[in-house]
Amino acid sequence: MLDRSIAPQIHNIASLQFPSVERYLLDNGIEVVEVNQGTQDIVHIEVIYDAGRPVEDKQLASRITAAIQKEGTKSFSSEALAEKVDYYGSSINSGSNLDYSYFSVFVLSKFFNEVMPLFAEVLQEPTFPEGELKTHREITLEKLKSNMAKSDLVSYRKITEEMYGSEHAYGYNSSEENILAIQRSDLIHHFTNYQSSDRCTIIVSGKINENVRSIINANLGQIKTTSSNKQFQPPTIPVHQAHHKIHSSQQHQTAIKIGRKMFNRSNKDFAPMFMLNTVLGGYFGSRLMESIRENLGYTYNIYSSLEPLVYDGYFTLNTEVSNELVDPTVAEIYNQISILQNEKISARELDMVRNYIMGNFLNMIDGPFRVANVMKTLSVSKMEVEEYEVIVDQIYNCTTTQIQDMAQKYLQRKDMIEVMVGSNF
Amino acid sequence: MIAFEKYVLDNGLRVILHQDASSPMAVVNVAYDVGSRDEEVEKTGFAHLFEHLMFGGSANIPDFDTPIQMAGGENNAFTNCDMTNFYNILPAENIETALWLESDRMMKLDFSSKSLATQQKVVIEEFKETCLNQPYGDMWHHLSDMAYKEHSYRWPTIGLVPEHIQDAKLGDVEAFFYRYYRPNNAVLVVVGNIQISDVKSQINKYFSDIPAGIELKRLLPVETKQSQFRSKIIEAAVPLPSIIMAFGMCNRLNDDYYAVDLLSDILANGRSSRFFVNIYKKSICSTIDAFISGTFDPGLFIVEARPMPGVSIDQTREVIWNELNEIKAKGVQSEELEKIRNKTESSLVYSEVSILHKAMNLAYYEILGDAEMINIQSQKYQNVTAEDIKRVANEILSQEQCNEIIYLPK
Questions:
Q1: Residues A81-90 pLDDT 10s
Q2: Could you list the residue range(s) of the whole structural domain that residue A29 is in?
Q3: How far apart are CA A54 and CA A98, in angstroms?
C-alpha cells in the first residue's frame, strides 16, 4: 500500500538558463533583438519606441498617436488596411503604456511577406486622418464613462494621481478635458519628434530564418529618422500620506487600495523589496491571501504589487470587500505588515517563496513569446541580460533579515496613501 | 497537430500524455466531468463552491498550495456549466509533486467544516465582486433565466443567489465528492518536458488504487425550441444603456457549431468585421460584439451593444437587425470566408504554443467526447461553406427566437 503521507522529493531550481538571444542592426541602425525558437510556424514582431508619457508635450499624445496610426496610411484607408491585415489572419496592435509606445503583429510564417509591408506603413507612413481622430475621441469619451463606473479602476486612478500629482507623466489620468484637447497636429508632432528610428527597438520572436530577417530589413530597415533630443528628467515627488474616500454607485463592495511611490529596478533595494512584496501579497500563498481570504473569508481576492517603471516605481495593496468589512480588512492588512516588521519569516516560508519565484521566472522564459516579453522589459529599462541575472541572483539569495528590513523601511503607515471607493462615502 | 498517448486505468481514469521538449515546464491537469448543469435547482452554485473546497486539504495533505509552491509551481482551477478543471504548472522535474497532490485529493478530500465556512464567505464575496458590484455584472443571471426554461443552463455557474451558497451543508459536500470526483469521471492530462515511461509509472503509483465510483448517466431536460420573442428592461447602476440579444443555437458536437462560430466571427471578429466597420466605426455604438456561449449542450449566439450618446436603443436594435438580415439574405462573400478561415487558422496555431493551453484543450475535448477532436478542429472550420453560414444564420437569427435584454441607467 502506498504511503501517501510521504511527499515526493522536490528539486530546487538554483539558477536560470536564460535562452540565447541574437542582436543585430538593420541598415538604418535600428537594433533587433531576436528570439529564434519555438515549434509553431508563427512570428511575432514588437516595435518599441522610447515615446511614452515621459516625453509627451501634451497629455495623452503618446496613447492617441499609437491608436490613430492604425487608422490610415499613405496607401491605405483605415478600412482597407484592416481588411488586408485581417485577410492574412493577422492583427496589428498598438498602444502606449507609461514608458513607451508599442506596435505589434502576429503573423503566420506563410503570410510574413504580405503582412510586413502593411505593418511598415503603419509605423512609417501614417496619415492621421482628422475624421478618424474625431471618431476615436467620441468613442474614448464613452469608454471613459463606462470605466468610471468601476470602483476598482477609480481607486487605481486616484492612488497613482495622488502619488505623483495630476501633472506628472506617471500621475495624470485621462479626462474629458485632455481627450478633447488633443488635435491632429499633436499627433503629427509626437510621431515626428519621438517615434524615430533612433528611439526604436524591434523584438522578433518565433521561428525565424534568413528570409524573415531580410524581409524585416527591407521593410523596417531603410528609413532613418532622428528625434528631437529631449531628455526627460522626472520631477522628484516626496513620499507622503493621504486618505481619499470616493463615492461609487456600486453598492455591494468597496474597493480598497493602499500604496506608495517606490523605485525602479536599479535601486539596490529592488530585489529584497520584490521578495517582501511576494511574501506579503504577491502569490496565492501570501500572508494577505492566507489571513484575509483563506482564514477570515473577507474577500475573493487580495494582492499586492510592486511595479517598477523606467524612472520610478510604485507599490499597491488591492482588494474589494463588502462595505461592512472595510475597517476589519484595513486593520488586518496593517496587522500583517506589522508582523513582517516585527518578526523574521521562517526559513521554511523563505524556501517556499524563493522556490515559487524561481519556478515563476522559469515559466516567464518558457517559449519564444515569453522570452521576447522579458527582453522587451529589459530593453525599455535599458538593462542587459546580465543585470537581470544579477537581480534573479539577489532574489535567490535574499535573507529573512533583509525582508524584515524592507518592511520596516518601506511599509510605514505614515508613508501610505489610502483610497476607498464605495457607496458608503 | 498534437501527438498524444491516451490510455485508461482499471478504475476508469482516462490519461492523456503529450511530450513537448521545448519547454522547461510541465502541466498536470485534472478535469472532472461535472459542471453547474449537474446541479439541483435549489442548490445552484455548488459545483463552483466545491471547486474551492478542493484546495482545503485532503486525507494526507493539510494544504494543497504549499507543496505546489514549494515545488516552484502554480495552480488554479475553473468551473463552468459543463466541466470543472484543475491545473498545475511547475518545473518539469517536480511533476511528481503535482501527481501526488492531485491523487490525494481524488482519493479522499478532508471534509472540513472550517474550510466550508470560509469558502462560503469567499465565494459570496466573489459573487459580489464579479456579478453584483460590476456594471452589467448580472447579465448572465438575466440572460440564462430568459433563454432557458427547462435545461439547467438556466442558472449561471456562480449560482442563482448567494443564499444557495450560504445554505450548503457538509453532507452535500461529501455526497458530491463521491458522486462526481471519482477517477471514472475524470481526465488526467500531463504535458511538457516529460519522459513518457517515467510519468506512466508515477501515474500508476499514485492513481491506480483510487476506487472507482458509480457509473454516471447524465439525463438533462431538453430545451424546447423557442417560438416567441422575449424581452426585459433592467434599470440598474450602469453608466450607459446597453442592448443584448441572444438566440438559441446547436450543441457543441453538432457540425453546425463551426458555421455558427464563423458567423459570429464574420460579424464581429477583427477590425474589418461587419459590426466593426458598419456600426462601431460609424460612431453608432461604443461597444459592439457577437459571440457564442460555446456550451456542450445547445448554446446561445449573443449580440451585445452599447449605443453612443444621441443614439436610441430602438435605432441600435435596427442597425443590428439590418446587419443580421443582410447576412441572412445575401450570405457571405468568398473573400470574407477566406479571411475568417485564415483568422481561425492563426488562432489555432497560436493556441498550440503554450503547454498550459494544450493540456487544457486536451482535457476539454476528452470531456466533450474524445481528445482526438483537438486535431480535427482546423479541418472542421475549413469545411464550412458560404451556404452553411447563410443557412445557420436563417435558422437561428429570427425575431421569435430572440431573447432581448435592455439595461438603462437608473
A1: 999 999 999 9
A2: 22-220
A3: 8
Say yes or no: A397 contacts chain B, CB-CB below 8 A. Answer: no
Each residue of A165-224: pLDDT tens digit? 999 999 999 999 999 999 999 999 999 999 999 999 999 999 999 999 999 999 999 999
Same structural domain, A191 and A335: no
Which of A4, A90, A365 has the CB atom closest to B60's CB atom? A4
**How many Å lie between the alpha carbon of A363 and the closest alpha carbon of chain B?**
7
Contacts of A91 in chain B (CB under 8 A): 270-271
Q: Could you say which of A90, A143, A297 has the minimum Cβ distance to residue B286? A: A143
* Residue B118 φ then ψ, to 5°: -65, -45
What does the alpha-carbon distance between residue A371 and residue A118 come to, in Å, rounded to a whole number? Answer: 25
Mutation to test the A interface, candidates B101, B209, B271, most A Cβ within 10 Å: B271
Could you give the CA distance from residue A103 to residue A96 in angstroms, rounded to a whole number?
Answer: 9
Per CB-CB distance under 8 Å, the chain A contacts of B277 are 79, 82
Residue A5 inside a domain? The answer is no
Residue A34 sits in the same domain as residue A104: yes
pLDDT at residue number A213: 97
- Taking an 8 Å cut-off on Cβ atoms, the answer to whether A145 and B240 are in contact is yes
Burial pattern A172-183, b for ≥16 Cβ within 10 A else e, equals bebbeeebeebe
In B, which residues are within 8 Å of A365 by CB distance?
A: 24
Question: How many CB pairs below 8 A link A and B?
Answer: 224
Residue A17 has pLDDT above 90, yes or no: no
Residue A233: per-residue pLDDT: 73
The sign of the dihedral angle between the CA atoms of A113, A118, A119, A124 is: positive
A99-151 per-position pLDDT tens digit:
999 999 999 999 999 999 999 999 999 999 999 999 999 999 999 999 999 99
Statement to judge: residues A197 and A264 lie in one domain: no
Grid coordinates belonging to A232: 526627460
The pTM (predicted TM-score) of the whole model is 0.96
CATH number at residue A44: 3.30.830.10
Confidence band for A163, pLDDT divided at 50, 70 and 90: very high
Does the residue A410 lie in any domain? yes
Q: Which chain A residue is nearest to residue B71, measuring alpha carbons?
A: A10
**Residues A191 and A269 placed together within one structural domain of the fold:** no
pLDDT in tens, B225-247: 999 999 999 999 999 999 999 99
Q: What are phi and psi of A420, to 5 degrees?
A: -120, 135
| Average pLDDT estimate for B341-368 | 94
Contact between A117 and A147 (Cβ < 8 Å): no
Q: Are residues A209 and A339 in the same domain?
A: no
